[in-house]
Amino acid sequence: MRVIPVDTSSATLLVTKLPEVKVRDRQTGEVAVDPVTNDRLMVLELVFIAQGGSDMIKVTVSEKGIGEGLVMGAPVFLSGLIARPWESEFGGRTRHGIAYRADAVMVDTPAAVQG
Known about the structure:
It contains no helices and 10 strands. It has strands spanning 4-5, 12-21, 23-25, 30-31, 41-50, 53-62, 75-79, 82-90, 93-102, 104-107. The strands form 2 sheets. Strands 1-8-9-6-5-2-7-10 form an 8-stranded mixed beta sheet, with no helix packed on it. It has a two-stranded antiparallel sheet with strand order 3-4. The chain starts with a strand and ends in an 8-residue tail after the last strand.
């Protein structure tokens, strides 16, 4: 599966939905876990603002990668953000999209002014 690194250095990222536990199977309620670390996975929604436009994205992060102090509207930064194109067929219909995954999400605090 193709993995594409995402450069967020010139983007503004704002929290639009706080992290929630990611559910792997809606019918059984099975919680999604990282296959390597076995940590629970969380999903949060962000507005990604760059190059004069914006998009809403859902980002999956390990529970241990969720930083302190996340609130609605908070500016954040993501470490290790990647995008994975996906495609699946369900009920004879093909669906596709992009899944986003990050190592961590932290509140983006302004740098202290030196003087």
